[in-house]
Amino acid sequence: MRSDTNKRRFPRYAASVAVLALTLAACERADEPAPNGTAAPAAPEAFRIGAAGSACELPVTLGIAESWKPKPVTVAPADPLADLARRGPLTLVCEIDAKPAGSIGFLRVWTGPDAGLRPNLQTFIGTGARAPIFTELRINDHPAVEVVYQTKGESDDELEQERAFAVETGDGMVAVSLESLDNEEYQAMLPAYDLARTSLTVGR
After folding, report:
1. Is the pLDDT at 192 greater than 80, yes or no?
2. 131 located within any domain
3. Are 148 and 35 in contact (CB under 8 A)?
């Protein structure tokens, strides 16, 4: 008798489990960031860089999150490390270190010629980029492009998240890349990256 009762109840129980599984899956999808969006809001702005006299003088100004440490990058053409400061048509001009804020990685600011945002970003990320998604947008009424992609980790075959955006300034192109140790650090650094993107103003 108990066995028959259990058999009658099992379909209802199985249906409940299925509904619960679908609900949990939907919640997980809702928490995931859109391909070019993020689940977390931009970090609060603690200070700005880009203007004359700031830590990095740039063709743009942008907001920096609390405890992040910017420093200018200047590499002479004959320096053995010069190639590390160039990616495609872009040259590294500023590094914003996440370490003082508790993360391992950098926001890096690059400059280059206005020669097409998407072609420049395509060259910037290189042929090793996996599944790149490019999105055209405007940043403070200036044309911009963001790319989200994956690369293989240096120490293993795990795919790591990467992203960058570029904006036309009328005096060359400026790109900002998020470069983290791993996917966990990437997620922790996203709010600071979003702050840089949403707060960027062309000119000083």
Report:
1. yes
2. yes
3. yes
